[in-house]
Amino acid sequence: MLQDVWLAIDEYRYADAEELLRRDEDLLVSRAGQMALGYIYAHTERPDEAREVFARLREQHRGDDWEHIAVHQLGRTERLAGQYRAGLELLAQERDMIAGLDENAHERAVNALETGICYLHLTELGEARAWLQDALRRAERHEDPEVAGRAERFLGELALQQDNRYAAQEHFTRALTFFRESEDEYAQQEIQTRLTELEGQPQA
User: Fold this and answer.
1) CATH architecture for the domain at 112-204
2) Which Gene3D superfamilies did the record assign (predicted)?
3) Apex CA 132: angle with CA 177 and CA 78, to 5°?
């Protein structure tokens, strides 16, 4: 059942995912079920509910190796809610918690990615580029094409903010390659749409 829930989430079928989750009370109240529920809330404009879920999970795991995951999700929730400074504060807390992990750990890559996205939304483009490039380097060393693809995608968006259409195309093209490697069909469609839009625009 949990696999079906996450498949629906990955396909942006959040209502279906929530319905599946609520059918199984044992799953719903489990840590895995609550993680999925918080994720659904965060992506369906219910940030208060998401904050409540992830804050409760953090309290349940305060001081253990799992706490940073709840903190990361709290940071993502703030980013999705448009509270980018709050998101950055939580992501900084997570970095302190994962400081002892290997330099190329997945957790470090996704933290850098989320940090870069927050700075991008704040139009602090120097910080955004530094964090997104850091995420890309770590993801490539960790052989994580999904995170690498997302980093390239947002580097493309950053290039567009700077009116650098050529660089944006380069980043989106590399993102597409990574998403093909990770077999993320929805991300491939999104990137292909961005490339098509760029191809239809006149050169500056």
Assistant:
1) Alpha Horseshoe (1.25)
2) Tetratricopeptide repeat domain
3) 110
